[in-house]
Amino acid sequence: MSAPFRLPSGGRIDRSKPLTFTFNGQSIPAFRGDTLASALLASGKVLFGRSFKYHRPRGLLSHGSDEPNALFSVDRGPGRVDPNNRASVVDVTNGLTIETQNHWPSLDFDIGAVNDVLSPVFVSGFYYKTFMWPKSFWTKVYEPIIRAAAGLGKPPVAPDPDRYGNRHAHVDVLIAGAGPAGLAAALAAAKSGKRVVLADEQQEMGGALLHETTAEIEGKPASVWLSETLAELAGYPNVTLLPRTTVFGYYNHNHLVAIERVTDHLDRPGETIRERLWQFRAAEVVIAAGSLERPLAFADNDRPGIMLAESVRVFINRYGVLPGRQIVFATTSASAYQAAIDARKAGVDVTLVDLRTQAGPEKALAVSAGVKVMSGYTVIRSEGTKRVKALIVAPVDASGKVSGPRVRLVCDCVGMSGGWTPSVHLFSQSRGKLSFEAERDLFVPGTSVQAERSAGACRGTFDLAGALNEGFAAGAAACGSAETRNFSASPVMTGFKAVRVLPTDENPTKVKAFIDFQNDVTAKDVGLAVREGFHSIEHVKRYTTTGMASDQGKTSNMNALGIVADILQKPIPAVGTTTFRPPFTPVSFGALINLNRHGLFDPARHTPIHDWAAAQGAVFEDVGQWRRARYFPKPGEDMHAAVLRECKQTRESAGIFDASTLGKIEVVGPDAAEFMNRIYINAWTKLEPGRCRYGLMLKEDGYVFDDGVVARIAEDRFHVTTTTGGAPRVLAHMEDYLQTEWPDLKVHLTSTTEQWAVIAVQGPKARDIIAPLVDDIDLSPEAFPHMAMRSGHICGVPTRMFRVSFTGELGYEINVPADYGRAVWEAVYAAGKPHGIVPYGTETMHVLRADKGFIIVGQDTDGTQTPDDVGYGGMIAKAKPDFVGKRSLARPDCVAPGRKQLVGLLTENPQELLDEGAQIVADPNQPVPMKMLGHVTSSYPSAALGRSIAMAMVADGRNLTGKTLYITTPKGFTTAVVTGTVFFDPKGERLNG
Amino acid sequence: MIRMEDAIVQKFSLPALLKESLGAHLGWGRQWGSADLKSSYDAVIVGGGGHGLATAYYMAKEHGIRKIAVIERGWLGGGNSGRNTTIVRSNYLYDESAAIFEHSLKLWEGLSQELNYNVMFSQRGVLMLAHNEHDRQSFKRHVYANRLNGIDNEWLTPEEAKQFCPQLDLSPGKRYPVVGAALQRRAGTARHDAVNWGFARAASALGVDIIQNCEVLGLERDAFGAVCGLNTTRGKVATTKVGVSVAGHTPQLMSLFGVKVPLESQPLQALVSEPLKPAFPTVVMSNAVHAYISQSDKGELVIGAGTDQYVSYSQQGGLHIPIHTLDAICELFPIFTRVKMMRSWGGITDNTVDRSPIQGVTPIPGLYINCGWGTGGFKATPGSGHLFAHCVAKGEPHPISRPFSLDRFRTGRLIDEAAAAAVAH
Amino acid sequence: MLLIKCPYCGQRPETEFKCGGEAHIARPEDPSALNDEAWADFLYTRSSIKGVLAERWMHSHGCQRWFNALRNTHSDAFLITYEMGKPRPAVDENGELK
Predict the structure, then answer these.
(1) Is residue C61 part of a domain?
(2) Residues A222 and A269 reside in one and the same domain
(3) Residue-by-residue pLDDT tens, chain B, 425 positions
(4) Is C50 within a domain?
(5) Cα–Cα distance between B321 and B337 in angstroms, integer?
(6) Rounded to a whole number, what is the distance in angstroms from the first to the last CA of chain A?
(7) Is residue A882 part of a domain?
(8) Are A68 and A83 part of one and the same domain?
(9) Last residue of one domain, picked from the residues A143, A159, A175
(10) How many domains does chain C have?
């Protein structure tokens, strides 16, 4: 296909680098430097999509990131397909495949366009008023239809093979926007030697200067000044230039974030990242974000071929593309005259219709350039279907009423301008307060909240010299300098008359004058909303959805606001301003999460023995952040069989278990025992060095918080263990009290979780197994009784050896420095082999402890149990005047009768296994809602007992011993008898081996 | 019955819509009246969010109190009721919570018809993913408890969950594998703004004055200490009943009245993607990775993040919070990494220590409080309003909301859904 | 993301810190002497003020030390951070440090 609308010369495209891409199956030529929009226009395409609600044919509105209509699905290869890309910002690359969106069966013939015929019904908020009958139809019928019709692009269906990056940067001055103001700010800041970053969303820096073919700066053509300035800035080692980088969010404390598009513009991206998230912490910020052109509201202002006036100029001057051969400009703004002049220079027939009767000097310039100027004319409507073919205009009198016959201006392109809106998005995000200049109809930055300043068009300074001067001063000020500079630059045509809806002699209730193009919101929709009582602009936005589309109201906000203000006859600030929220333009989830994917999303923690367990074929489970071996199946075994075997072998000979994940804290200092007394419910003063004690701690609310065995190493030193998941919060809890409540205590705390590997050897053969490996610890029961701790060496490695048991068997927990954990583990395992040692995992550990009625905090408790609830009330040291949580235990509810208590449950059928989480009732035949007594917390098949066992929290449970209760099952209820919690070896005789 | 002068209450229906479409919709009147603050009312509800408006509606409808004003500092529904992720469910663990949220869910099921306003209540189900043994135990406990409370909730295997939500990734080696899920089929989403407007319109039709841009400056009390009026930016108003329903602004307002409340106000953020064709059929929540996601009728993926850790009234939090949520969403649904975030925002949530609400009387006679709904108040809107209406009208809490009294913090009888679920959205 | 000045380490991003809620709520010397209401007050009542709030922070991914801060909860701006045990700095009616 040829490019009939490409000018023979001009523009910033590289004509030596031809490219092709595919648009709805058709091959389209382009040059390096083209966007999809410019290349398609060059090929004569103007129909780029269908609108959201009415499926109206739509073309381009704009040339930039504010484009609401031309949204494409872009296909860069398998898994690299994504929707809703604005044609005006996607660079053409060779072989790109593009599809238009929101139509069926085709872009040209779209069944959905019937909605346009039905549009008198489908007004704003129509769905709130209907679809209510019959009731069941909403979820089943109406909503699915609406959902299928709504939405724009098709969602991605395959995982994304691309990678994304992240970079944090501390900068002295961050400049957002590299138009004239931003460049001048960078020039000023660069000289200071401070770290300066200049970021701009476009493929090239320069902003409006990229299409400024007539103006001069400092006596040079603007393009020359631009390239010299960029070269100068590039020469500063302290300046970083980031093109294709949109500063999209301004957060607290000058945290600004930007998205850099790294490879989407390359034919062959290679191995690097697709996009990079920049997170800046900036000492000072200069916002130079420019301004956005306002569309005009008139009937059928959305036909393909009708675009913003400045966009016409951009396509001609920057891309060498004619958007049409007969162009009509419709304006209330002086800037459109320059566009008309540039279009005329490109050799096409140009007419300019200005609602204003009094134009400035721009009129004479346009007329002399050959532009037909019609002053004092309004636009009544456009004609055409899939491309505009005429604009109907009519003269207006001084009061703004249509005063004469209509004139039909044949055209294939319309450039419209309703004036300009400063881009105050980043300023507003910084929570600065906007102020409204009623005379110029502009919201501009008012009071700053953070360390930033705005310069140029984004604060309403539209002339070139003014923007340069302001930018320079802002850049200097950001570096603490009062320096200014007076740039010489050509005058620019500025000034506009704000008109919300163009005057018309048609019945305004019959016409569609679009305000928000993507969401199909018309001026009369806004009127309807106001009529229905939606007067705050936030209400109007939500009711009509204006400003809620993917362009977030960039082109629509001021027009909508103005219409509401006009109807209510209130000043604009009284109607309100919408708060701008991040992001400025849409940002991919991939870029936001960047590295936090795959293995780097919440990495799992592994113990020193992990690889050994993996090699043995262990099945793992997640416990907190840890990945723990759950069981070690032999070939053909399921979990049940493996666990039965592990339990049996441990109780008959010995088992070896990796307890390294237990949290460990070293509590040291002259006041260590006092500190322990205050943190735990237990008493610690009299615990002798070399002895262990099970400790239980509460939060201040009196509920069980964590538990673990504690060894007193010396008078002033405790080795504390915590639950696997609880380690960080227990340390934080202890530090909190130590530092903030009891700073007088001479204690310090050190987390040693990662320092110690813990090898539990449990079972009657435990002593025999480790004895040959231990050099200097007397393992005899007399010298090393249960609940004692000894320091010495095992396999020549220093150890703190605990004689403790979470299984009820004779057992040791061997703490060795983590780096030796694997070696000692393997030595113990080898020594145990002749004795029949078995490695076991967390599941067996759970069963063995349940046999003995030991609780697991977090499973048998859920943060609402007192020590007495779990049967541990006797551990409370009565003599202690206070400890954390003590006072709460005396609260009325904590001493009330009927609290849930931990009990055992035995099913009548010994092979029946209760469901963990099952609820318990006394009477299964009562009506719903039933009175529930509690729930099953733990339930296992016990190898030792040859039957199932369970633990449960049951209201007044200890008084129900021997009673039969009903327990829910997936199908109904079963029965179980309440028992004590110790199922096995109640006298604890096995502890002695 | 008192009727607003300018509240034209015209029935919404398809025939009415078609009729109006012939007349360019010029016949639609105001959905709710715009009243001046009168000098006295039987009751004043402070806070024009969903809860406050619902309270006024049910007071007028079920308790025959017609001289009611709802006063709102800003615009109706401008707080959390217009900023949430619109999830409605009732599968809470504890009997008290289950009762209050199920009461609400039942009202949701007829709300569009009740209000004659399509609130787009969509019972597309809420699927809560279990990723480990702890989740499995906890969710099964919920499922069983809900069942005995008459609330639908079922346990699904991973395969059943994927059948319900085909976007789930069950491939092996995931950091957070799906080991099962709890599904409440009656749960779903609704259109938040429509709920606010629907209640406002229905309340207005019953004669409730809805006063926007009116801030409370103080409480007037009689010789016995009871409420006798309010001081506002629009003047004084006499009333003996004041119901406060102002979410994150509760601590501030109640401190003005000299009442202490155990609340902290923290930012909660949410975000939406660009609109997509149907991509996600249900609501999925994952407590373990702190994420929840659904797709709006407009096509946006609606994603809720966690709360920021500090007290703030800025309606803005840090970007790291939503990023962390997106980490989790993309871990669960890797196909979404190329989808783009279109808008993000924050609200101010009023969080209690047990993540359960507070509703009932205060130490000041005539002053009633409804707050503490934290990150999950939207789903309670009709239920909370219905129960709070009873409380303000009768001067004592409804039996369903009685356990949620201020007094529970003294007795220690907390309803700790936070402990039960680790999260309470 | 807030930027927080740890009194010991200097300015660091918020992700290194844990917020511990309102500051200067001392644990009673003798909790058993308090009635239920006073104890509940200590446990749960927080001012949650809109304005200058004294709050506790811990530099958890740093020096692990707790400190206090004055922060305006409306603007999220920190007025000052200070070591535990120091009195709360005075603030004028405009919410600025005296």
Answers:
(1) yes
(2) yes
(3) 334 344 457 899 999 999 999 999 999 999 998 889 999 999 999 999 999 999 999 999 999 998 999 999 999 999 999 999 999 999 999 999 999 999 999 999 999 999 999 999 999 999 999 999 999 999 999 999 999 999 999 999 999 999 999 999 998 888 899 999 999 999 999 999 999 999 999 999 999 999 999 999 999 999 999 999 999 999 999 999 999 999 999 999 999 999 999 999 999 999 999 999 999 999 999 988 888 999 999 999 999 988 999 999 998 899 999 999 999 999 999 999 999 999 999 999 999 999 999 999 999 999 999 999 999 999 999 999 999 999 999 999 999 999 999 999 999 999 998 776 543 33
(4) yes
(5) 17
(6) 89
(7) no
(8) yes
(9) A159
(10) 1
Whether the CB-CB separation of B92 and B417 falls below 8 Å is answered with yes
Residues of chain A found within 8 Å of residue C85, distances taken between Cβ atoms: 743
Residue pair B204/B61 in contact (Cβ under 8 Å)? The answer is no
A552 contacts on B by Cβ (under 8 Å): 342-343
Does A588 contact B344 at a Cβ distance shorter than 8 Å? no
CA–CA min distance B116, chain A (Å): 8
Test mutation, B131, B319, B325, B331, chain A, max A CBs within 10 A: B319
Name the residue range of residue A848's domain.
609-661+755-852
Say if CB A203 and CB A244 are below 8 A apart.
Answer: yes
Mark whether A748 and A761 lie in a shared domain: no
Give, for A284, the enclosing helix (H) or strand (E).
strand A275-287
CA distance B97 to B81: 20
| A783: CATH | 3.30.1360.120
CB contact under 8 A, B251 and C46: yes
Q: Do C76 and A252 touch (CB under 8 A)?
A: yes
- H helix or E strand, kind and range, residue A41: helix A36-42
The pTM of the whole model exceeds 0.90: yes
Q: A234: buried, middle or exposed (CB in 10 Å: 19+, 13-18, 0-12)?
A: exposed
Query: Which CATH number goes with the domain that contains A58?
Result: 3.10.20.440
> CA-to-CA distance for A668 and A718, rounded, in angstroms?
6
Residue found by looking up tokens 């003995």 in the block: A852
What CA–CA distance (Å, rounded) separates A56 from A72? Answer: 16
C-alpha B169/C-alpha A157 separation (Å) is 12
The strand pairing partners of A437, in sequence order, are A442
User: Same domain for A732 and A708?
Assistant: yes
ipTM of the complex: 0.98
- What CATH number is given to the structural domain containing A907? 2.40.30.110
- Cβ–Cβ below 8 Å for B252 and C48: yes
Query: Testing the interface with B: which of A528, A593, A625 to mutate, by most B Cβ within 10 A?
Result: A593
Interface of C with B in 18-47 (CB under 8 A): 18-19, 21-22, 36-37, 40-41, 43-47
Strands A521-522 and A514-516, bridge-based pairing: antiparallel
Q: Where are the beta strands (DSSP E) in A683-732?
A: 692-698, 704-714, 717-722
Does residue B196 contact residue A542 with C-beta atoms inside 8 Å? no
Q: Tokens in use for A934?
A: 């509690």
Q: Which two tokens stand for residue B238?
A: 């006499």
Distance CA A280, CA A730 (A): 34
Other Cβ atoms closer than 10 A to A688: 8
Close Cβ partners of B15 (under 8 Å, ≥ 6 residues apart) = none
Best of A257, A887, A891 to disrupt the C interface (most C CBs within 10 Å) is A887
> For chain A, which chains pass the contact test of at least 3 CB pairs under 8 Å?
B, C
Q: Which of residues 730-759 of A touch C (CB under 8 A)?
A: 732, 735-736, 739-741, 743
Q: What are phi and psi of A771, to 5 degrees?
A: -50, -45
Cβ contact A195:A174 at 8 Å? no
On whether residue C67 sits in a domain, the answer given is yes
What domains appear along chain B, each with residue ranges and CATH number? 30-86+192-262+354-421 (3.50.50.60), 122-188+264-351 (3.30.9.10)
In this structure, are A542 and A432 located in the same domain?
A: no
